[in-house]
Design goal:
Low-confidence stretches: none
Number of helices: 1
Structural class: alpha+beta
Shape: elongated
Order of helices and strands: HEEEEEEE
Mean pLDDT: 78
CATH architecture of one domain: Sandwich
Helix content: 10-25%
Length: 130
C-alpha cells in the first residue's frame, strides 16, 4: 500500500497571494526613487568658539536647486522637487545659531555652511551702587 499526500490547491492559494503582495511591496520600495539620506552622504563637521562649519558633498546640484533652513540649533538642507538628484538632511548642533551672521557657499559640488554660534546670555546682572 502506498500513501500519497493529498494537497488541496485552494489551501495554498492564499499563501501564494500573500507572498506575491510581499514581493510587489518589496520591489516597489526598492525601485522607488528615494531621496538621499544623511547617512549615505557623509558630512564633515568642525567647530571653534565662534563658528561651526558643515561641509557636504552634493555633486550635480546648483545653488538654485538647494534650500537651507536654520531654526534655533537645527540646520535643514534639501533639494527642490525638480532637481536631478534628491537630497534632504537635518543636523542638530550643540548650540543655537545666529542666522544673520551665517553663510553658505557651493564650490565644485561641495556645500560649505559656516554657522555663527549665538553668544550665551549671562544670567547674572550687576547693579551699580549709588
Amino acid at each position: 500500500m502506498i500513501f500519497a499526500p493529498v494537497i488541496r490547491h485552494s489551501a495554498y492559494l492564499p499563501g501564494l497571494r500573500v507572498t506575491d503582495r510581499h514581493l510587489e511591496r518589496f520591489l516597489g520600495q526598492a525601485l522607488q526613487k528615494a531621496p538621499a539620506r544623511a547617512a549615505e552622504i557623509p558630512a564633515r563637521f568642525e567647530q571653534d568658539e565662534q563658528h561651526c562649519t558643515l561641509q557636504l558633498d552634493v555633486p550635480g546640484l546648483s545653488r538654485e536647486q538647494l534650500q537651507i533652513e536654520l531654526t534655533h540649533n537645527t540646520v535643514r538642507i534639501s533639494s527642490v522637487a525638480d532637481a536631478p538628484r534628491q537630497y534632504q538632511a537635518a543636523y542638530e548642533l550643540p548650540q543655537d545659531i545666529e542666522a544673520s551672521q551665517s553663510r553658505a557657499r557651493l564650490e565644485n559640488g561641495v556645500l560649505s555652511i559656516t554657522l555663527a554660534k549665538k553668544a550665551p546670555l549671562d544670567p547674572v546682572t550687576r547693579l551699580t551702587i549709588e
